Amino acid sequence: MQFMLLIYAEEKVYDALPPAQLAEVMAAYGALENAMLKAGVLVAGAELAPVRKARTVRIRRGQPHFTDGPFAETKEALGGYFLIDCASMDDALEWAARCPTALDGCVEVRPLASPPAA
Asked: Which of 3, 16, 50, 104 is most buried, most CB within 10 Å of its CB?
C-alpha cells in the first residue's frame, strides 16, 4: 500500500531557528530519508517552498482566479511530503512518528486511493 506522509509545521518556527539548529533538523530528515531508502519503503519525497511563494487557483463562474498563498485558516502549513510504500497503516504510522516535525508540528498519514477497477 502507498501512503502520503504530509508534513505540517509553522514556518515561522523554522525561520527563527539558528543555523546550527536548523542544520540539525535537516540532518534528522536526511537520516529518516536514508532509513526509508534502506528499508525500501521510500517512493518519493520533497520539501516545499514557503507558503509566501505559493499561488492558489480557483475557477469561479468559468473564469480562473489566482491568489497569493493558500491562506489556510491555520498556523501550520504543508511543508513537504514523503510517499512511502509499506505493508499497512501501522507501518506508515511508525515511519511518520520518526519524522522530526512530529515533535512540534504534525504529520498526516493518508493512504492513496486505489485505482478504479478496470
From this structure: 3
